[in-house]
Amino acid sequence: QVQVVESGGGLVQAGGSLRLSCTASGLTFRDYAMAWFRQAPGKEREGVSCISWFGGMIYYADAVKGRFTISRDNAKNTLYLQMSSLQPEDTAMYYCAAEAGAYCSGSWSLPKHDYNYWGQGTQVTVSS
Fold it and tell me: pLDDT-based confidence at 13, cuts 50/70/90?
Protein backbone atom coordinates (compact mmCIF):
# COMPACT_ATOMS: atom_id res chain seq x y z
CA GLN A 1 0.00 0.00 0.00
CA VAL A 2 1.36 3.39 -0.99
CA GLN A 3 1.63 6.03 1.69
CA VAL A 4 2.69 9.63 1.25
CA VAL A 5 3.14 11.58 4.47
CA GLU A 6 4.04 15.24 4.86
CA SER A 7 5.56 16.77 7.98
CA GLY A 8 7.31 19.90 9.15
CA GLY A 9 4.49 22.41 9.05
CA GLY A 10 3.81 24.82 11.86
CA LEU A 11 3.39 28.42 12.94
CA VAL A 12 6.12 30.87 12.01
CA GLN A 13 6.49 34.64 11.99
CA ALA A 14 6.75 36.57 8.75
CA GLY A 15 10.31 36.45 7.47
CA GLY A 16 10.94 33.08 9.06
CA SER A 17 11.75 29.69 7.57
CA LEU A 18 10.39 26.17 7.62
CA ARG A 19 11.41 22.91 5.99
CA LEU A 20 8.71 20.52 4.92
CA SER A 21 9.34 16.84 4.34
CA CYS A 22 7.35 14.25 2.44
CA THR A 23 8.14 10.59 2.86
CA ALA A 24 6.74 7.99 0.50
CA SER A 25 6.50 4.25 1.03
CA GLY A 26 5.14 1.37 -0.99
CA LEU A 27 6.47 2.72 -4.27
CA THR A 28 9.78 3.04 -6.07
CA PHE A 29 10.40 6.66 -5.21
CA ARG A 30 12.94 7.35 -7.93
CA ASP A 31 10.36 6.37 -10.57
CA TYR A 32 8.23 9.38 -9.68
CA ALA A 33 8.42 13.07 -10.34
CA MET A 34 7.38 14.84 -7.15
CA ALA A 35 5.57 18.09 -6.55
CA TRP A 36 4.43 20.38 -3.76
CA PHE A 37 1.02 22.03 -3.83
CA ARG A 38 -0.72 24.33 -1.40
CA GLN A 39 -4.27 25.34 -0.71
CA ALA A 40 -5.35 28.32 1.32
CA PRO A 41 -8.86 28.57 2.77
CA GLY A 42 -11.36 29.54 0.10
CA LYS A 43 -8.80 29.25 -2.67
CA GLU A 44 -8.01 26.69 -5.32
CA ARG A 45 -5.11 24.32 -4.86
CA GLU A 46 -2.01 25.67 -6.59
CA GLY A 47 1.25 24.12 -7.67
CA VAL A 48 4.30 25.35 -5.76
CA SER A 49 7.18 23.34 -7.17
CA CYS A 50 8.05 20.17 -9.05
CA ILE A 51 11.23 18.12 -9.28
CA SER A 52 12.25 15.38 -11.70
CA TRP A 53 13.34 11.97 -10.51
CA PHE A 54 17.03 12.85 -10.26
CA GLY A 55 16.56 16.50 -9.35
CA GLY A 56 17.98 17.82 -12.58
CA MET A 57 14.81 19.59 -13.65
CA ILE A 58 13.03 21.85 -11.18
CA TYR A 59 10.12 24.22 -11.56
CA TYR A 60 8.68 26.86 -9.25
CA ALA A 61 5.56 28.94 -9.18
CA ASP A 62 6.35 32.62 -9.65
CA ALA A 63 5.03 33.39 -6.17
CA VAL A 64 7.77 31.34 -4.50
CA LYS A 65 10.77 31.72 -6.81
CA GLY A 66 13.85 32.79 -4.95
CA ARG A 67 12.31 31.93 -1.56
CA PHE A 68 11.52 28.20 -1.73
CA THR A 69 13.85 25.34 -2.65
CA ILE A 70 12.69 21.86 -3.55
CA SER A 71 14.95 18.85 -3.22
CA ARG A 72 14.77 15.10 -2.88
CA ASP A 73 16.75 12.23 -1.41
CA ASN A 74 15.92 9.07 -3.34
CA ALA A 75 17.86 6.92 -0.89
CA LYS A 76 15.51 8.09 1.88
CA ASN A 77 12.34 8.20 -0.25
CA THR A 78 11.92 11.77 0.88
CA LEU A 79 10.99 15.05 -0.75
CA TYR A 80 11.78 18.41 0.85
CA LEU A 81 10.63 21.98 0.56
CA GLN A 82 12.84 24.59 2.21
CA MET A 83 10.81 27.75 2.65
CA SER A 84 12.43 31.06 3.52
CA SER A 85 11.26 34.67 3.80
CA LEU A 86 7.79 33.38 4.56
CA GLN A 87 4.90 35.79 4.25
CA PRO A 88 1.32 35.62 5.54
CA GLU A 89 0.16 34.86 2.01
CA ASP A 90 2.12 31.60 2.18
CA THR A 91 -0.31 30.37 4.82
CA ALA A 92 -1.91 27.20 3.48
CA MET A 93 -2.13 23.46 3.74
CA TYR A 94 0.83 22.06 1.87
CA TYR A 95 0.57 18.77 0.02
CA CYS A 96 3.04 16.60 -1.82
CA ALA A 97 2.10 14.64 -4.89
CA ALA A 98 3.73 11.85 -6.89
CA GLU A 99 3.47 11.37 -10.63
CA ALA A 100 4.73 8.21 -12.29
CA GLY A 101 7.45 9.10 -14.75
CA ALA A 102 10.88 10.69 -14.59
CA TYR A 103 9.94 14.27 -15.41
CA CYS A 104 7.45 16.91 -14.39
CA SER A 105 4.69 17.23 -16.94
CA GLY A 106 4.04 20.51 -18.67
CA SER A 107 0.81 20.81 -16.71
CA TRP A 108 2.41 19.90 -13.39
CA SER A 109 1.08 22.94 -11.56
CA LEU A 110 -2.55 22.64 -12.56
CA PRO A 111 -4.89 21.70 -9.72
CA LYS A 112 -6.52 18.95 -11.76
CA HIS A 113 -3.30 17.43 -13.08
CA ASP A 114 -3.51 13.69 -12.70
CA TYR A 115 -1.04 12.77 -9.97
CA ASN A 116 -0.93 9.16 -8.89
CA TYR A 117 -0.66 9.79 -5.16
CA TRP A 118 -1.29 12.63 -2.73
CA GLY A 119 -0.43 13.11 0.90
CA GLN A 120 -2.82 14.37 3.56
CA GLY A 121 -1.09 17.70 3.94
CA THR A 122 0.74 19.69 6.58
CA GLN A 123 -0.43 23.12 7.74
CA VAL A 124 1.81 26.15 7.41
CA THR A 125 0.69 29.33 9.14
CA VAL A 126 2.65 32.57 8.83
CA SER A 127 1.82 35.34 11.25
CA SER A 128 2.41 39.00 10.47
Answer: very high
Q: Which stretches of the chain are assigned E, i.e. beta strand?
A: 3-7, 10-13, 18-25, 32-39, 46-51, 58-60, 68-73, 78-83, 92-100, 117-118, 122-127
Q: What b-and-e string marks burial along 22-48, b requiring 16 or more CB atoms within 10 Å of the CB?
A: bbbeebebeebbbbbbbeeeeeebbbb
At 5 the pLDDT is 98
Rounded to the nearest 5 degrees, what angle is found at the Cα of 60, between the Cα atoms of 54 and 64? Answer: 135
Q: Which amino acid is at 68?
A: F
pLDDT range class, residue 78, cuts 50, 70, 90: very high
User: Of 91, 122, 119, whose CA–CA distance to 35 is shortest?
Assistant: 119
Closest CA to 20 of 93, 104, 85: 93
**Cα–Cα distance measured from residue 118 to residue 115, given in angstroms and rounded to the nearest whole number:** 7
